[in-house]
Amino acid sequence: MTDPIKCIKLSDIFIILFQILIIILIAYSFRLPVNYISLLVVLGLLISPFFIQFRLSWSREERDFYQLTDFLQQFLVSFKQHPKIYSALKECLENTDGELRNQISLWIKEIENGGYPKQGAQKFLQYQSHFIVSNLIYLMLAVENYGTFNYIEGLEIIQNDIEDWIEDTTLFKSEQSRTKNRIQILALFACAIAWMSHNMLFQTDLIGTMNFYYFSLFVFLVLILFTLFFSYKLISVPWIVGSEKL
Amino acid sequence: MIVPILVGLIVWVFFDHQLLELSKIKTKKIQKIEQILSVELKDEWFTKRYKTICILRYLILLIVFVNDKILIIGLTLISCLIAYFIPSLILERKAKLKIKSIRYHFPIYLRQIQVLLQNNTVVKSIELSLEYVPDVLRNDIEKLNKKLKMEPNNMTHYVDSMKQYGLVEIQRSMKWLYRYQNFGYIDAYSQFNHMLVSTSKWLRQSRIENKNDSIQVYQWMGMLPLVGVTFVFISAMMSVVISLFERG
To answer: Nearest residue of B to residue A224 by CA position?
Structure first.
């Protein structure tokens, strides 16, 4: 199975740490008291593993999604040419990886051991119960067991569904990524506004009581950290949505 | 002003039983909600609602102690109205959510049927689909399956199925399934293709709507830094004002 940590690029981890570093530098440039800066550093260190985990989850889900859809497309085309599940599975096995490969191997073993084809298929469906996968497998089982004249049409319906699924998911994920970037840019703008107002205020020498002001700056920076947290949380949702599973 | 209100309250208490019976009358809206949620509201639901109003009506007694009588009357009226409408509004919301979920899951289910139709009849496809039918549709599909087993050629069973949700797409699909069952594959072939295209569009639309809903929650998070910077700005202004006061 592929090591999940390989799914994330080093540049992604660097960007995450850089973002937290920027917040701490901003806190320093605001001349916040050391205890507030220390708290921000601790909070940043505590929160950064979550950022990495969310980014990792995105990469893993992305890899699994494309691997599954590639497998389904190949499986379907292979079955179209020669309507036998066993040979289609064998043909696709080489191009899969990780848990998907394990599940396909199990299915192949079930067939080789002489089990009823539906048993192996049901185990695979327990692993991946998306309605498209279920439609495809049930149609294949029906074709193999009873034979039919019109199965090509059914396979084409499913083929179109897979293509629509890939297109919709890719579009949605890029929209999610854009939303994440938009939220982060808004956070940066907020920092810029706070920094400008801070500079203007200190040029006038009107401010005397600093405690409450420093506290509000600290709260603001914590809010920025939380915004970053939510922006990464946004992308951690599964690529294969639960509501489409049966 | 106090006396007529108190008399009114006593009259209300006197006719409590009759009013409770009146409140148990099911309006068309309630009946529709019952059909959508596949539940029957029992007497306890209506009694509980009426009893809440009964407790809240005693707020009116505050007029004896408070000078602003209009405010007390208004408050009592509003709280009684809220107590009356909130339970049905909650049910209405549940019904709306169910319809939304059905709108999302029906094209998924229909796709299963379309695939099963490749080597089964409509009745058999519906029966086979029971194994993997989405939970939200299970009751309706089970009912339809039972009816079709008795009379597979009765159009009413198809048309009446899931009629309560008022979704045009479902009605169209049901009529199409009836035609497919009764007039054979060749006659229904072109309609089958139309239905495939239509289901694809519907499926994609539901998927996109569902996904956009999930993004919208997070888009509000983008407002968080702006709230923060406003807070910083206000606190800075406060500090300036305090400094100015301190300096005299």
So the answer is: B225
Give domain status of residue B237, yes or no.
no
Residue B86 has pLDDT above 90, yes or no: yes
Alpha-carbon distance of B135 to A246, in angstroms, equals 8
Which of B104, B218, B239 is closest, CB to CB, to A213? B239
Distance from CA of A122 to the nearest CA of B (A): 12
C-alpha–C-alpha distance, residues A186 and A169, integer Å: 25
Residue A135 to residue B105, Cβ atoms within 8 A: no
Give CA separation, B241 vs A62, A197, A206, A208, in Å.
54, 16, 9, 10
- Distance of alpha carbon B144 from alpha carbon B161, whole angstroms: 6
Asked if the C-beta of A145 comes within 8 angstroms of chain B's C-beta atoms, the answer is no
ipTM over 0.85: no
| CA B137/CA B113 separation, integer angstroms | 13
Residue B218, in any domain of the structure: no
B32 or B207, greater pLDDT:
B32
Q: Which residues sit opposite A245 in a β-bridge?
A: A130
B224 belongs to a structural domain: no
Instruction: Tell me which chain A residues have a C-beta less than 8 angstroms from the C-beta of B240.
Output: 201, 206-207
Number of domains in chain B: 2
**Residue-range definition of the domain harbouring residue B157:** 98-209
